[in-house]
Specification:
single chain, mainly alpha, rod-shaped
Length: 173
Amino acid sequence: MKETLDVNEPKRPKETKDPLLTIDNGEIAGPDYKGVYDTFHAKAAQVAQAKRVWTDAAEIAKDLKKSYEYRQDELLEIGVGPPKTPLFDQAKTPAEDWRKITIDSIGLKPGIVKALTEKNKIATVGALVDFQAKHTTFWLKEIKGVGVEGGTEIDKAMEQVWIDNPQAENDGK
């Protein structure tokens, strides 16, 4: 026997992807709670697994960061010495110690040292800085017995003083 179709009757799908509705003998039935329950718990298990993986990865990343920082510190100590800690370094060395450095210990030629100490009464770096501050740009013209070449040598020696005593640069310049 041939089936006839009623044009007034709507066509219903045989399957649906909605887990809340199921097809029962071609009819849409009520919610499929077991399917929803199973789907929910499967997704919850996936979320829990993803969280465990993420937590483990975070711990590994933390350990890797510590390892990286340790190796970076080792590299810095080899390349440039121990890390600078200005607040603590200043506590070890009073800020005015650089002023007591003697002129004969900063690498100047003996003739320049003699001119500074005997003719100008400048025996320390502090006294030289004070002299330079007093006479500003023209300090070299005011020093007796030292010419342009001597002034250049004094400048180079003082640059080394500032490099060796970084806290002094802010106080003395």
